[in-house]
Amino acid sequence: MVITRWPRKACTIIRSSGDRSARVRILLASAASIRMPGTGPDLARVGGKYSDAWHVEHMRDPRSVVPASIMPGYPFLDQTLLDTSNISRRMKTLQTIGVPYTEEMIANADKDVVAQISPDTKEAKALLARYPKAQVRKFDGQAAGENVPPTELDAVIAYLQMLGTLVDFTKFDASGPNLR
After folding, report:
1. For 164, left (φ over 0), alpha (ψ -120 to 50), or beta?
2. 16-39 pLDDT per residue, tens
3. What CATH number has the domain spanning 52-162?
4. Sequence ranges of the domains in the chain
5. d(CA 119, CA 145)
6. What are phi and psi of 122, to 5 degrees?
7. Helix axes 122-130, 103-115, angle to 10 degrees
């Protein structure tokens, strides 16, 4: 596994380490020392910082909200329906490699994707009963309804709006050993 655009040190780390998961851990742990260039902002706590409308506009035309942005626009996302046909199979595969999905999560995945963009439905209420911190609404700004399919823009904005919101910063130890 060699990625030629990465610095030589990263390629050496990848080739010389043990099993693949160990190589990935070593590479991620040493990313700061490799000085890999960042090309965008830290999105770790972007959830809730901006409105859905801001995200919609930013995804369609980034320079309309951030004039100095170098991000390309993704105007097609709100016109592209989200392909959920194999979400349960993907989750099952991720479960086999250690992602802690339960059988209930996998069984409800197809319904939950649609329920998340369908407020005021019994499916949305069931979703919130299972995931009390979930956000339920039509994220892409288009009209909500019972049979409105999710778009790729719904999925991206729902993901962005959750980033950093499930972390309890009151339990964060600022004197911890892993801080830079």
Report:
1. left
2. 545 556 656 655 555 555 555 667
3. 1.10.760.10
4. 1-37, 52-162
5. 8
6. -65, -30
7. 140
